[in-house]
Design brief:
alpha+beta; Ubiquitin-like (UB roll); DNA polymerase, domain 1; 2 domains; five-stranded mixed beta sheet; binds FE2/S2 (inorganic) cluster
Length: 156
């Protein structure tokens, strides 16, 4: 089927089987390889994107669901509120090691702080429950998220 949607602010048209996952479509058909695939069953958050203002797992959204929708990936994340400061906070805290989880974590935190810029530590941890990191034990990611929150607060 032919699917038309908006990717990072640009109109795209792709031909794909209806049950092709958005994560696969992004990586294999649209050269948007910043979105990662880990489990492909909605458990790890590596494929997190923002779809019409909601953070969703790209591996669980199928092509037939995309018509007319707006998708933001890590490549276009800076268009979302506070995104550069989220990335800056995570970098300051050396939040990641291998970085495979990083795009998904960034998308989750950008969505969180867009909806709740003053999210507390428990709220941040709750938001990140869908993002698995195999390297860090999460402490550095949490420190980075708190640093991002401080930067966002200072910029307001
Ligand atoms: S690849 Fe989508 S949640 Fe793991
Ligand atoms: S930094 Fe390696 S999976 Fe998170």
């Amino acid at each position: 089927m032919t699917i038309r949607f908006t990717l990072n602010g640009a109109a795209v048209t792709v031909d794909a089987a209806p049950d092709t996952s958005l994560a696969h479509l992004l990586r294999e058909d649209l050269s948007a390889t910043g979105t990662k695939i880990g489990c492909a069953i909605g458990r790890c958050g590596a494929c997190m994107v923002v779809l019409d203002g909601q953070a969703v797992n790209g591996c669980l959204v199928m092509a037939f669901q995309l018509e007319g929708r707006a998708v933001t990936t890590i490549e276009g994340v800076d268009a979302l509120p506070h995104a550069p400061l989220v990335k800056q906070g995570l970098a300051q805290a050396n939040a990641f090691q291998c970085g495979y989880c990083a795009p998904g974590v960034v998308m989750t935190l950008v969505h969180l702080f867009a909806t709740d810029p003053e999210a507390d530590e428990d709220g941040i941890a709750a938001a990140l429950t869908g993002n698995i990191c195999r390297c860090t034990g999460y402490h550095s990611i949490l420190r980075g998220a708190l640093a991002a929150r401080t930067l966002i607060k200072a910029a307001r």
